[in-house]
Design brief:
The structure holds 2 protein chains of 2 kinds.
Chain A lengths: L3 E3 L4 E4 L4 E7 L6 E7 L6 E6 L4 E3 L2 E6 L4 E6 L8 E8 L12 E2 L3 E6 L1
Parallel strand pairs in A: 2-11
Antiparallel strand pairs in A: 1-3, 3-8, 4-5, 4-9, 6-7, 7-8, 9-10, 9-11
Chain B lengths: L4 E3 L2 E4 L5 E6 L6 E7 L5 E8 L2 E4 L8 E4 L6 E5 L8 E8 L8 E2 L3 E5 L1
Parallel strand pairs in B: 2-11
Antiparallel strand pairs in B: 1-3, 3-8, 4-5, 4-9, 5-6, 7-8, 9-10, 9-11
Classes of the chains: A mainly beta, B mainly beta.
């Protein structure tokens, strides 16, 4: 089983629609979770951290389900500028391990917002 | 701009030459990470360094690759005797608190091997 698994897509979604995708992770010791976005092979940019209690930032909502070992990202009222690859990122190196594991990236979900 | 700075943005080398990639972390960050992204692939962790120490190099090839983060100056990723398969985007990231705070990425260095 891959450490971090995502549906590669592409997800073709009309502008204004709501879209959601999940990511599963295999390491139950994972402590930190993030969503990054990457545009056209540029550098990954942090979209949001994912907390146990969930996290909402404007049109974006992230949820964590530790029991089932998945995190989700929901985008409401999608914009053309949301078109990108969304990377699910997990860090198994919590503070007790000194964060020594770097980040484990999923291969990303490709989202295309259509006018 | 106090972001992560990488240079050069693009680097072209012939097979057998050496490539040196540089990364200056964000101000106040002392933890540096290097990642490689091959064409059509996801990001792969290579090495994690603190000042003057390699903490985790489990993702770095055993031969030809080395990394350092000296007391003064940027972190350096060095690739000796480059081969075509080394062509990739190399990203550097830094963080303030590893494992807790997210990592922030530089623009990357695109390495092309002729």
């Amino acid at each position: 089983r891959k450490e971090v698994e995502q549906d590669p897509g592409p997800f073709n979604v009309p502008e204004g629609a709501t879209v959601a995708f999940n990511c599963t992770y295999s390491n139950s010791a994972s402590q930190s979770f993030f969503w990054y976005r990457q545009d056209c092979r540029k550098e990954p940019k942090l979209l949001m951290s994912v907390y146990s209690s969930g996290n909402e930032d404007g049109r974006f909502t992230a949820q964590l389900n530790r029991a089932s070992q998945y995190i989700s990202l929901l985008i409401r009222d999608s914009k053309l500028s949301d078109s990108a690859t969304y990377l699910c990122v997990v860090n198994a190196g919590g503070i007790e391990r000194g964060g020594a594991d770097g980040l484990t990236f999923g291969k990303g979900t490709h989202l295309i917002i259509q006018p | 701009n106090a972001g992560v700075m990488q240079n050069p943005r693009h680097l072209v080398r012939r097979r057998g030459q050496e490539a040196r990639l540089r990364c200056s972390p964000m101000k106040g960050h002392s933890h540096v990470y290097w990642y490689r992204q091959l064409p059509e692939e996801g990001l792969k962790f290579m090495v994690y360094l603190q000042k003057e120490n390699i903490i985790d190099e489990s993702g770095m090839p055993k031969e030809r690759f080395s990394a350092e983060f000296p007391k003064e100056g940027p972190s350096i990723l060095r690739i000796q005797q480059v081969v075509r398969g080394d062509s990739a985007a190399y990203f550097c990231a830094s963080s303030a608190t590893p494992g807790i705070e997210p990592q922030h990425f530089g623009d990357g260095t695109r390495l092309s091997i002729l």
